[in-house]
Specification:
five-stranded antiparallel beta sheet, Ribosomal Protein S8, Chain: A, domain 1, three-stranded mixed beta sheet, alpha+beta, 2 domains, single chain, GMP Synthetase, Chain A, domain 3
Length: about 200
Amino acid sequence: MAPADIRITAEPIDTGRCKFVVSEPVHGGGVRRFASPDDASGSPLAEGIFAIPGADVAEVIVSGNLVTVVKRGPAPWQTVGKAVGQVIRAALAGASPAVAPKPVAPATLGADDDTLYERVADLFESQVNPMVARHGGRVELIDVQDAVVMVRMAGGCQGCGMADVTLRQGIEAMLQQHVPDVKGVVDITDHAAGSNPYFAAAKK
């Protein structure tokens, strides 16, 4: 498929995180997280994103057709997003896989964030979102850092007074039951911003 045929939609979460939804699968082997340019070595997609000037990329998470980019640099997503799109297209058009298979890590005591991310993502798909969908909402798994799950409420959950109750009683309880290694849940939704939190966040 020609790179021009690949559609990429950027969904900024806040000034430091943005989710890119790609019309083609980017990586089929579960979740890959890259926390440094060294981690990205051998995966052209992640290497290219870390190399974007002015972004100071801190982390890249690739799963299926989603690419989440975490940046520390001040460059706005409008600028960085164009560069990320070019990197994704180039990586998918390249001869080698855009994302290398995950190296087999030695077994460690306790689950690492990558493993937790995969387990939490499965739980969200199979149980959390079908439950929340009945209320017209959706909960997006954004990241797992130091065993703390970061989520964003979307749809009918955003700005809903019951969102905190849903999060605390429903989602935390499910996580404790199914993924006991998780230490907590953080809701990074900008509930005051309504449907367009991206621009409202700049006023703070």
